[in-house]
Amino acid sequence: MRLLHTSDWHLGRAFHRVNMLGAQAEFIGHLVTTVREREVDAVIVSGDVYDRAVPPLAAVELFDDALHRLADLGVPTVMISGNHDSARRLGVGAGLIDRAGIHLRTEPSAVGNPVLLTDAHGDVAFYGLPYLEPALVKDEFAVEKAGHEAVLGAAMERVRADLATRAPGTRSVVLAHAFVTGGQASDSERDITVGGVAAVAAGVFDGVDYAALGHLHGCQAITERVRYSGSPLAYSFSEADHRKSMWLIDLGADGSVAAERVDCPVPRPLARIRGPLDDLLADPALARHEDAWVEATLTDPVRPAEPMARLTERFPHTLSLAFAPERAPDDPLVSYARRLAGRSDQQIAQDFVAHVRGAGPDDRETAVLREAFDAVRAHDAVREVAR
């Protein structure tokens, strides 16, 4: 069975205030063409269909168009909700849409109920694991601690229990939206570190033939059978070096996996340039970026006059301007920035306690800080779901 694995469409999202709807529509057209020309048997979309819980009308219309075009091809589509989606809104009408071959899986309680598709070699069971917010689903999965690994592990136990009841030789595919250990993140994924450590081990997916992941925006293989498709478009300059693509997966009769990357259309290349303003304006090596979306970081020791106006004369699509003045190593601003670089909210708070009191927090106080940060994130997640 040939599968096309994609995720993280983020319909309705802008790129530094640039409307991406046209590029997203071009991607949908490319997806439909790929399904038709490469004789795809099933499309799998692993979450974050929309960019926010209440998407703009134009994004909803584009999604509706995508569903109609896929249904017209007669190719089944299985999709789950991600952490950006409203599971309730995305799942409206799922029972009716099911009849058209579009299978929306947004309910945590249904993770053990697969979509069954059949080819010449027998059944393939598709299990949809929507994004599982630990604070919201811990009771559903009867876990003591609301952590990502605990709830995802409990969901996979239901998957394996159902799979054990299927006919021998039934192949299995899991769709999941999670941060799996070993994955390379970018700046454009929303933090999901509620319940402590967000990452889960790839071994949680043991026992299934293919795990189609969503959440991380870079296309990558964690193992041969556990892969992220990544987002079809770049949504931050940290993705400047990404090759945006989808996975074309051939699932063999014996459950073997053969994977091929299918490139996505690029609306405009991204470039990150850095240096003194005069150098950026004069460097002939930067001519290749003159038609790109540009993030410029100026290192002038003193902020130059009208930097954006001057930059856009050469790089008309400059979208982001930052300043990182080159300073002496003993400059207090440099040392402060270095202390903060790469540190989590928890670590910064612990450093603040140490600075004010002269000694860092003990184990009990560290746990209180962690619980406070988790409570804030859980509150934000509940509020997002309720929107």
What are its keywords?
32% helix, globular, 3 domains, alpha/beta, 17 strands, 11 helices, 22% strand, six-stranded mixed beta sheet, Purple Acid Phosphatase, chain A, domain 2, 387 residues
Present the secondary structure layout.
Blueprint: E1 2-6, E2 14-15, E3 18-19, H1 21-37, E4 42-46, H2 57-73, E5 77-80, H3 87-90, H4 94-98, E6 102-105, E7 115-119, E8 122-129, H5 134-137, H6 148-163, E9 171-177, E10 210-214, E11 220-221, E12 226-228, E13 245-251, E14 257-263, E15 270-275, H7 277-282, E16 293-298, H8 307-314, E17 318-323, H9 332-340, H10 345-357, H11 363-386
Parallel strand pairs: 1-4, 4-5, 5-6, 8-9, 9-10, 10-12, 15-16, 16-17
Antiparallel strand pairs: 1-13, 2-3, 7-8, 11-12, 13-14
Helix pairs in contact: 1-2, 10-11
GO molecular function, one term: 3'-5' exonuclease activity
Subunit structure: Heterodimer of SbcC and SbcD.
Organism: Streptomyces yokosukanensis
